[in-house]
Amino acid sequence: MNTPPETPTGPLDGNAAGGILGDLFAIEITAATLICEGCGAFAQVGAASVYGGRMGVILRCRDCGKAMLRMARTRAGLRLDMRGARSLVVDIAHA
Amino acid sequence: MSDSPVTRGFRGRKPAAQSDRIPPGQHLTHDFPVLSAGPTPVTSLAEWSFALEDDDGRLLAEWSWEAFNALPQTDIKTDIHCVTTWSKLDTHWRGVSFDTLLQAAGLPEAPGDYVMAECDGDYTTNVPVDDLIGGKAMIATHYEGEPLPSEHGGPARLLVPHLYFWKSAKWVRSLRFMQTDQPGFWEELGYHMYGDPWREQRYAGD
Amino acid sequence: MPATDGPAPLPRRLQWHIAEIADIIVETPRVKSLVLTLPDWSGHMAGQHVDVRLTAEDGYQAQRSYSIASAPEASQVALTVERIEEGEVSPYLTQDVRVGDRFEIRGPIGGYFVWTAAMDGPLFLIAGGSGIVPLMAMLRHRAAANGKTPATLLYSSRTYDDIIYRAELEGLAAQDKSLKVTHTLTRKQPSGWKGFARRIDREMLQDTGFPPDARPRIFICGPTPFVETAAGILFDFGHGRHLIKTERFGPTGG
Q1: Same CATH fold assignment for domains C16-109 and C123-248
Q2: pLDDT tens digits for B162-197?
């Protein structure tokens, strides 16, 4: 993988967000599962679509496009918004 | 981060040449990078409309694509500055100025001090009305003489070039007037409510 | 896990470590591999990546992600970096670094895009340009683990000289009949070239890959348009969505 200098027009895969999510989550997050608040679909974080480029991480459901997880790390701190996800499921044995 | 050891020989991007057109912390680019918070929406021109709404979401004015393009057009040449540090000089845009919209809507003045730009997809951003009037902003439909490409916000985007470019909301469909300032999509995540590149207002608290 | 056991300990949080360059290998005119000494390395799985962070004297920092090229079994971690002309970090890592230089690394990252020899099923790897890197880690791991389930690599490069790990791939395929390596060169081919000479398409994927009922595990890595094209075609063929894993770089690196 090579980080693009700016985000391309299309999404990246969720594993591209693994590093910045690692700033907050104590475990390897890309193997965790998000349940979309919009349509109920299950998605491994690594399989979700990532937008936002250098501004932050916007993880969207591949089925309905809803933003399940939004995170930005700025001088103001780190903000996580997960209103678009019903839950985050972590399989500890494989985390 | 201040505890990181220095990497021998690494200098980072070459700083921009001294220029009063490049705000602090920015570098000059000749590309036009694309950054999006979501997929490029697909809206046919037949479905497209642009609206001005009041605080309660009531329609103040609405235009179809044809009607919108029949409004008096404005051409500008301007510099744009992205919070991710690139700046691009002498870009050319055509569209309908915010002043023209107020006039066409029969509004002697804006019914609110702030505006929330609402767009296809779920993107929003907030801008003070003072930063839209007096020729400071437009709804742009053409870039460098061509119809605005969809990856850059086409068919129409808000253009407020004196603020960081995340305020120039792509795929804009309406401007909703507000009495108080409310955070939009990136502002909710810690980006600055106003976003003046010359005061380097990238993040909340700057 | 039985309810009477305590909760499983969560793995240690991602932290920044200092890596020192032990060796620099020229792979192609634009690509170099950096072999690193990483004293606190916890190990990794093939397919994972690391974040690299560089700090200039004035405190300015730049961070990029790079796939780990080495197998988990290797004694040292290796990264492979492609030089991007207008990039900020890759020109430094491919032109300016010397053995002994140090920078920060965080990882391994990515529990999703990984393959281990313990996974069943044939393996179908599709690489575009520098997308070969994480897939090479998988093939190196497969060789170290003496994996014998069928594996196929379809690798798209611009020219013959741009093929990363060319000789090593030849060697792996020569000594292992269960591994098939197919190249396609999209921009220029050497005279006498008998391989594919075009961008990947339905025919090529059909010819080189496994049928859906073989249930291959598919890993696609490279620039976004490349990955999307390949994934779309394979999904059309009937491969299960959960068996197709993708890692997109975007149109350029940095």
Answers
A1: no
A2: 999 999 999 999 999 999 999 999 999 999 999 999
How many Å separate Cα B138 from the centre of its chain?
Answer: 9
Q: Write down which chains contact chain B via at least 3 CB pairs under 8 A.
A: A, C
Are C55 and B6 an interchain contact pair (Cβ–Cβ within 8 Å)?
A: yes
**Which residues constitute the domain of residue B140?**
44-199
- Cβ atoms A51, A66 nearer than 8 A: no
C191/C207 Cα distance (integer angstroms):
23
CATH 3.40.50.11010 fits C16-109, yes or no: no
CATH label of the domain that carries residue B131: 3.90.420.10
Q: Please identify among residues 31-70 of chain A the ones whose CB lies closer than 8 Å to any CB of chain B.
A: 49, 51-56, 58, 60, 65, 67, 70
Note whether C99 contacts B: Cβ–Cβ < 8 A: no
User: CB of B112 within 8 A of CB of B102?
Assistant: no
Number of domains in chain B: 1
Are A86 and A43 in contact by the 8 Å Cβ rule? The answer is no
A67 chain-B contacts, CB cut-off 8 A: 37-38, 122
**Higher confidence at residue A14 or residue A46?**
A46
pTM above 0.90, yes or no: no
Note the ipTM here: 0.88
In a domain, B190, yes or no: yes
Q: Does domain C123-248 have CATH number 2.30.30.30?
A: no
Per-residue pLDDT tens over the stretch C46-86: 999 999 999 999 888 888 889 999 999 999 999 999 998 77
A20 close contact with B: CB closer than 8 A: no
